Amino acid sequence: MNAHMRVPAVVSRAGAVSAITVAAVGGPVAAPGLPQQADAASAAARALQIAASKKGAPYRYGAAGPSRFDCSGLTQYAYKRAGKRLPRTASAQYNRTRHIKAASRHGGDLVFFHSGSSVYHVGLYAGRGRIWHAPKPGTVVRLERIWTKKVWYGKVR
Predict the structure, then answer these.
(1) Please, is 101 exposed, middle or buried when counting C-beta atoms within 10 Å of its C-beta (0-12, 13-18, 19+)?
(2) Per-residue pLDDT averaged across 38-47, rounded?
(3) Sheet strands side by side (includes 98-100)
(4) Is the pLDDT of residue 48 over 90?
(5) Cα separation of 122 and 75, whole Å?
(6) How far apart are CA 61 and CA 26, in angstroms?
(7) Which of 69, 82, 140, 145 is the most buried (most CB within 10 A)?
């Protein structure tokens, strides 16, 4: 187990399986009454890893994996593999997310590029002002700095 990983203590009346045992065998750790934010955060982290694993995959308009992607196809594929459903287009994905401020963004949150009120591109936030995305025809999935301030952020629910 990673030394930086924190496992919440779970107390059971029956004294069943401890959180440490569950974590050691790779199972999910849940405690009654805890918010589902931890689940959403772990899905975002998994989606980010999945998108990064597609580095170098060619762009193809309308493609949603597993070997070729357009921008929203990459985000949809990554989140689907992480256990969350997203619609197919960048605009529909924006409408499905919980909109957040830049100060609240975390790895795996979606970054939406817009012109006025129209969303035209999406990627997964990777931290330090960078995104994983499938840019345009003739390119490949790659990590790149966010090149404009005309972006909105969304958390996948």
Answers:
(1) exposed
(2) 86
(3) 98-100, 151-155, 110-115, 118-127, 130-133, 142-145
(4) yes
(5) 8
(6) 37
(7) 69
- Distance spanning both ends of the chain, measured CA to CA: 28
pLDDT at 113 > cutoff 70: yes
Tens digit of each residue's pLDDT (9 = 90 or more) over 122-146: 999 999 999 999 999 999 999 999 9
Catalytic residues: 71, 121, 133
Q: How far is CA 147 from the centre of its chain?
A: 20
Residue 98 bridge partners (DSSP): 155
Question: Could you identify the residue written with the tokens 């979606």?
Answer: 110
Cβ–Cβ < 8 Å for 32, 13: no
Answer yes or no: are the C-beta atoms of 79 and 92 closer than 8 Å: no
Amino acid occupying residue 147: W
Check if the beta carbon of residue 122 is closer than 8 Å to that of residue 75: yes
For the chain, give me the number of helices (H) and strands (E)? 4, 6
Quote the CA–CA distance of 43 and 80 in Å, as a whole number: 9
pLDDT at residue 41, as a whole number? 73
